[in-house]
Design brief:
This protein is mainly alpha-helical and 185 residues long. It contains 4 helices and 2 strands, in the order αββααα. The radius of gyration is 35 Å and the shape is elongated.
């Protein structure tokens, strides 16, 4: 097994970071993770959820609410209260939109996984096959480079001779170089 160049993905202990820059970076990364996990809980359990947070400087507020802010606040203030018809319709519409978006997200994630697998498979096939000389032309030594140049010059001479023969044959005869196509067939 190869030696790893990095420590890899590790669990970071949650403790207050003294460096303000590191604290802001950790906040933004963990906030993204928190919202992703909240979204997964909503998808898996069909629950109402609300998260409100502010950045370390206190200037910016962030929130994640499902299905709507009003529904989450009403449930928080009075958990046993029945929602009125309008609020229930809005919440149901928001849930339906979330379900549709989650279905689309799952489809896109499946397509992405399939494409990554295809790329991985193609890379394996590419690594397994024998490379042709022109794929590594920058690694040709001087002797092989001279041979290659000679071969190209020879091929160029043959092509020029063929072209001259075609030009001479076309100009010396009144017939076209190729027989005309038969219209009947």
């Amino acid at each position: 097994m190869e030696d790893k160049k990095t420590a890899g993905r590790q669990k970071i202990p949650i403790e207050k970071l003294q460096d303000e820059t590191k604290r802001k970076v950790a906040f933004s990364k963990r906030l993204s993770s928190l919202y992703k996990n909240a979204s997964k809980i909503v998808r898996a359990c069909n629950v109402d959820i609300g998260i409100v947070s502010s950045c370390p400087s206190g200037r910016t507020q962030y929130s994640y609410v499902h299905p709507t802010t009003a529904v989450v606040i009403d449930h928080f203030v009075n958990p046993t209260m029945e929602l009125d018809l309008g609020t229930r319709l809005v919440a149901e519409n928001a849930r339906n939109i979330a379900i549709e978006n989650n279905i689309r997200l799952n489809e896109l994630e499946a397509r992405e996984a399939a494409e990554k697998e295809k790329i991985r498979s193609l890379e394996q096939m590419n690594n397994a096959r024998e490379k042709c000389w022109w794929e590594s032309i920058d690694q040709i030594d001087a002797e092989n480079l001279t041979t290659f140049e000679t071969t190209l010059n020879f091929a160029e001479g043959i092509l020029k001779d063929q072209l001259k023969k075609l030009e001479i044959g076309t100009s010396s005869s009144s017939e076209p170089p190729f027989p005309p196509k038969n219209e009947d067939s």
